[in-house]
Amino acid sequence: MPIEDCFCHNSACPDHGKRGHGNVYFRGFSGRDKLIRMVHCRTCKRSYSQRKGTALARCQLPPEKAVAILQHIREGCGIRATARLVGVSKDTVLRYVAVAGDQAKNLHDELVAFSP
């Protein structure tokens, strides 16, 4: 993910939600294997994960499995079939679908707000 796609998630920040504004930069790593970049806002001095605001936020599964769950659902597989194909419980599939649905709604609202 390029830095231009990131923005400050702090609603109290004057630069909240501004993509490519130059106020955020990558600063360190997090996660078990230190593979998730941390984004820092110069304006409000807050840091957060690059995954915040995405379907992979607070994801405990390997990213490949989480993406596989969402791909199976997108292709029309049911919850139980997806759980069986990916090798996770159906509750896990439901949790990821709910998070992805919330993120899709937020993205839709953001894009519609800028539509002419």
Characteristic key phrases:
116 residues, 39% helix, 14% strand, 3-stranded antiparallel sheet, 2 domains, alpha+beta
Mean pLDDT: 85
Strand content: 5-15%
Distance between the termini: 27 Å
Tell me the Rg in angstroms.
16 Å
Order of helices and strands: EEEHHH
Number of helices in the DSSP assignment: 3
Could you describe the largest sheet, including whether it forms a barrel?
3 strands, antiparallel
Description:
The protein has three helices and three strands. The chain has helices spanning 63-74, 79-86, 90-114; strands at residues 24-30, 36-41, 47-49. Strands 1-2-3 form a three-stranded antiparallel β-sheet, with no helix packed on it. The chain is globular and about 45 Å long.
Compact overview of the structure:
The protein is α+β, with helices and mostly antiparallel strands. It has helices spanning 63-74, 79-86, 90-114; strands spanning 24-30, 36-41, 47-49.
